[in-house]
Design goal:
Strand content: under 5%
Number of strands: 0
Order of helices and strands: HH
Oligomer: single chain
Distance between the termini: 197 Å
Structural class: mainly alpha
Shape: rod-shaped
């Protein structure tokens, strides 16, 4: 193959040199066309010979890398779909959990409301009982104070009456004693 290629290369270079030396009017257009075709074939053969391996390797590696990229993309797509499915499941579970939490919070709020209302009623009842007890205590205290005041005033009035009586009795006694002294003879005293 190398011999054939070298022979074609030599002939094409030699014929090109001959053609150029012959001048412009030396050849026919058909021969000119044939030489151009031969030149192109030689050029393609040279390119094929030297560029076949690197171009094939580049194209092969490009195809392999493209295949690898597609495989990786498919795997990533499958992973993303699986992750998306998992996330949808988690979201639905979270929504369910959130609904349960809201329902639980509402129930707790209702229970707390009922408990607070009951505690309020109990507190109001306790306050009423305390107020009633305090009112009874104040009533008893007022009665005791009134009795004490009445007793003190009664004692004061009685003392005043006794003082008046004592003064009148004393005055009577003094008058009677004085009268008795006057009625007695003068020498007896």
């Amino acid at each position: 193959m190398l011999r054939l290629f070298t022979l074609i290369l030599f002939i094409s270079c030699w014929s090109t040199a001959l053609y150029a030396a012959a001048g412009e009017d030396a050849g026919s257009p058909l021969l000119d066309f044939v030489w151009k075709v031969v030149n192109v074939v030689v050029l393609v053969a040279i390119i094929y010979k030297f560029a076949k391996t690197p171009v094939a390797a580049a194209l092969g590696s490009t195809a392999e890398s493209a295949k690898q990229v597609l495989d990786d993309a498919r795997k990533l797509e499958e992973n993303i779909i699986a992750d998306l499915s998992k996330m949808r499941t988690k979201i639905s579970e979270l929504e369910k959990e959130a609904k349960e939490m809201v329902a639980s919070a509402k129930k707790d709020a209702e229970d707390a409301k009922a408990r607070i209302i009951e505690e309020g009623k109990q507190e109001i009842q306790r306050m009423k009982e305390q107020a009633s007890f305090a009112l009874k205590q104040e009533h008893r205290k007022a009665e005791d104070d009134l009795r004490r005041w009445i007793a003190e005033e009664s004692v004061k009035l009685a003392e005043g009456e006794l003082k008046k009586e004592m003064n009148q009795n004393r005055q009577k006694k003094l008058v009677n004693t004085f009268m008795d002294q006057l009625n007695q003879p003068e020498g007896v005293a």
